[in-house]
Specification:
Elements (H helix, E strand, L loop, with lengths): L2 E5 L2 E3 L5 E8 L6 E8 L6 E7 L5 E3 L7 E5 L5 E6 L8 E9 L12 E2 L3 E5 L2
Parallel strand pairs: 2-11
Antiparallel strand pairs: 1-3, 3-8, 4-5, 4-9, 5-6, 7-8, 9-10, 9-11
């Protein structure tokens, strides 16, 4: 059974950091693209980071460039999203998603597997 499970969300002050984790089970990530999406209340879902596990290519939304970093853990089936310098516009439910692909796909409808989401709150 294919499953993605996120963790690591929480409450952080502006300027703080969080590291989100996405653990995949039921499949091997080597030929997948993993994306992190976020959705705030009343807003459309937004892709914030993308990682191709075939060649390591990454892509980030302009709103998070230089602050967020996506990486693969040593355990190979874990993907991390390191979020630094969190801003008041970053709070949302963050989801990891996976698609079997050799190149990065940007629209959310392209992704076949989704986690349940983890809440990120930024507040003083």
């Amino acid at each position: 059974q294919v499953q993605l499970v996120e963790s690591g969300g929480g409450l952080v002050q502006p300027g703080g950091s969080l590291r989100l984790s996405c653990v995949a089970s039921g499949f091997t990530l080597d030929t997948y693209v993993i994306a992190w999406f976020r959705q705030a209340p009343g807003k459309e879902r937004e892709g914030v980071s993308f990682l191709s596990l075939i060649d390591g290519e990454t892509s980030y939304a302009d709103s998070v460039k230089g602050r967020f970093t996506v990486s693969r853990g040593n355990g190979k089936n874990t993907i991390y999203l390191q979020m630094n310098n969190l801003k008041p516009e970053d709070p949302a439910v963050y989801y990891c998603a996976a698609v079997f692909s050799s190149f990065i796909q940007f629209p959310d409808w392209a992704y076949d597997y989704w986690g349940q989401g983890t809440q990120v709150t930024v507040s003083a």
